[in-house]
Amino acid sequence: MKFTATALTGLVIVEPDVFQDDRGWFLESFNLQRFKSGLQELGLNSPDYFVQDNLSSSKKGVVRGLHYQLEPHAQGKLVSVLHGAVFDVAVDLRPNSISYGKWFALELSAANKKMLWIPEGFAHGFLSLEDDTCVSYKVDKYYNKDSERSVLWNDEVLSIQWPLMDSYFLSSKDSISPGLFVRPK
């Protein structure tokens, strides 16, 4: 596995080794020992284990997020795409971070097989780029409804450069999320 740090501290692109031959391909989608050592080589902590695996299926144009949970239920997520493609976004919400209010995005797809490690303190969301897109994410804390929060996906302060679509589809909850108030400089 290849681990690449992004401009936002703690956020890491994970690329598994893919073994391909005339039959198709094989990859190890997760190995706790390799995951921990890959993050440690970047000077980052890793969860001891994941407690929940989530899957979502979305049609083209669906926006999910930007979601996060408050402490003590804040979640780290390892996100990958099993079918289709997404424009995946993480927003730094850590109040003492030099990148507070900054966002990072990349395309995750079944074709490129990349994953994104999103540590606690980030909001996460994605835009489905294809019909029948299936997203998988492993989380290191259980979902807690009372701790669930979100930031408006198209908040003017964040200015995320979402790919253009004919239509965007959001849940009613996501469409009325509050914006982010960036601390003064």
TrEMBL record:
Domain of life: Bacteria
InterPro entries according to UniProt: RmlC-like, RmlC-like_jellyroll, RmlC_Cupin_sf
Pathway linked to the protein: Carbohydrate biosynthesis; dTDP-L-rhamnose biosynthesis
Isomerase among keywords: yes
Catalytic machinery residues: H67, Y137
Enzyme class, first EC level, given as a word: isomerase
Keywords tagged on the record: Isomerase
One family name in Pfam for this protein: dTDP_sugar_isom
Keyword Chaperone: no
One GO cellular component term: cytosol
Record-level GO BP terms: dTDP-rhamnose biosynthetic process; polysaccharide biosynthetic process
EC number in record: 5.1.3.13
Molecular function GO labels: dTDP-4-dehydrorhamnose 3,5-epimerase activity
Catalytic reaction(s) noted: dTDP-4-dehydro-6-deoxy-alpha-D-glucose = dTDP-4-dehydro-beta-L-rhamnose
Residues flagged as site, Participates in a stacking interaction with the thymidine ring of dTDP-4-oxo-6-deoxyglucose: Y143
Subunit text: Homodimer.
Homology family: Belongs to the dTDP-4-dehydrorhamnose 3,5-epimerase family.
Protein role: Catalyzes the epimerization of the C3' and C5'positions of dTDP-6-deoxy-D-xylo-4-hexulose, forming dTDP-6-deoxy-L-lyxo-4-hexulose.
The name this protein goes by in its record: dTDP-4-dehydrorhamnose 3,5-epimerase
